[in-house]
Amino acid sequence: MILYRNNSKEFINDVDRNVIADKIDLAYTQRTGRKSTPSERRSWNNSMRFMETVVRKSQIPNDCGILIEYNIPSTSKRIDFVITGHNENNDSNFLIIELKQWESAEATNKEAIVKTFLNNSIVETTHPAYQAYSYKKFLSDMNAEVYEGRIKAISCAYLHNYKKKNPEPLLQEQYKEIVSDTPVFFSYDVEFLEEYVNEYVGRGDGLTILDNVENSKLIPSKKFINYIDSIFKGNKVFTLLDEQKLAYSSIVDISLNSQEKTAIIINGGPGTGKSVVAVNAFVALLKHELNVRFVAPNPLFVIV
Description:
The protein is of the alpha+beta class. Helix content is about 40%, strand content about 20%. It has helices spanning about 10-15, 20-30, 40-55, 130-140, 145, 175-180, 190-200, 205-215, 220-230, 245-255, 275-285; strands at about 1-5, 65-70, 80-85, 90-100, 105, 115-120, 120-125, 150-160, 185. Strand 8 (about 150-160), helix 6 and strand 9 (about 185) form a beta-alpha-beta unit.
């Protein structure tokens, strides 16, 4: 799902004519069947005015591509803002920008976790740089255009209401690695963000890149499959025993050889290893390059 798709010139025009939030809102209702909340509409209106300034002052060509609220396929996550285009080396780039309305934040000792004011209270949430990085990583693992090197994904975060502190909690040592990969731009960093945008998409011709990303096959890369395989290989927790091995082999055999849609039900009480069977089958089918999904009934799937 994409709530807004256009070239950079028309994006600027839509913001200047004060219709950008209305267009996003209408698309949201049409695609989801639900009405957006007042806070969502305020957020779109506010953030898009800041991004219009960045797009216009970065002096990128009119034919760069713009995506707003790009739903990452097979997930519920949406990328706030994307600009596509070529750099001076003619690389095809897909620039992900995570937008935040935050005005302050606190550091924590947890990896890539910070505290900020959300929904009327101080809560823990992921670091803005990590959010943008995770979207880029997903595309790098799952989108064929990206992991085969035809398109390069780049990520950053823009906190347009946030005045950087000294010292700045979001730039503390524990976040150094993620911020070095995915930079964070604060309120007074807008000129640096404009230069960053121009560096990656300043040669324009971005609409074809949008098409290629949207139409690309969503299948795991070999690198991703090998990584998943390495996690489970040799791990005694995932060793199949007796009937588990039989169930696993049946799943793999039917999945690879059946010419019809088939449902396979594995019966067993708590602690009989159904999850172990499922995870092993998941990895095996990934290695056979099937486009596999693992769906669990509970929000957090854990094997103890």
